[in-house]
């Protein structure tokens, strides 16, 4: 069983490393010039698909087994899912770099199929649960939003290739981003946090209502982009997200208050700080982003602010929280693979004995510093010299 999560986690970490190197290249400029340029799409999907989503798949397979106390429904289907997703992601990134719409559509189809395979595997596994709690509900809701985000991305890929016609791409793009960022990652991370924090703090108790607010936020926030009119309805999603973030932060504080273990490790401590502070920040990011997009469409400063805010949410909360939990999950998987068969047959070191918490803490601090090291530069006017014209926005390419 542990080979499957390992496969996803190692692949995700490799993609995250490639992404980290890419942040210091001129390609980063495209994210702040035009979010829909081929170069920006490559950059965003390298992080979201190759890094964050790949790691999230591996963590879900592992943690769902822990929560349910049984293996996933089909390990073979999990490997098929990995093959489709890995191949689709690689082809999609190459297609973005070469800007070949038919290839983009084909690769998007592979990614979409892989998400459906994941949804079937997870759905059948959750169907075996004796009782649904906040964790299971969160995984189910997050999987629903992942399917929605993948479907919208697939449709946009088909439209880009000219295989289908979509009347308006902007609301589809915004809903795609909301379903992925808030619906999938937000609900999945908050749901698993209830289990992980309770486990590592030796505290107990979960609140379903905060998970329900996350779900409602993702649902109304995503579908509000398709509703025509003055646009006031779009506030429902961010407002529900604010309530969910507040309830989530309070619940994290309750878990800390009820703890029977004072030091859960540097990774969990970082996750707690992020869980308390950044969900509230995400509300400000998303509300202000919506205001800028509606009040100043196409304005260069507004676009850079929107890119900065989306990046802060995805990197600051989603990315760092995933890495914080991974500092606990990955060593456990490695220990199980190496020592699991030897338990009860002699002296076996514990996971904590093998970990150097000082170095773990230093590594997390380094990742945290590197993540935000580019923030002072994000509002500057990046030079786009040296970037191939096919990766530039249409306006910039035409001027070169």
From TrEMBL:
TM helices/strands, residue ranges: 44-67, 79-98, 104-122, 134-155, 175-194, 206-227, 233-250, 270-293, 305-326
Entry keyword set: Membrane, Transmembrane, Transmembrane helix
Gene3D superfamilies: Cytochrome c oxidase-like, subunit I domain
Heme in keyword set: no
Name of the protein: Uncharacterized protein
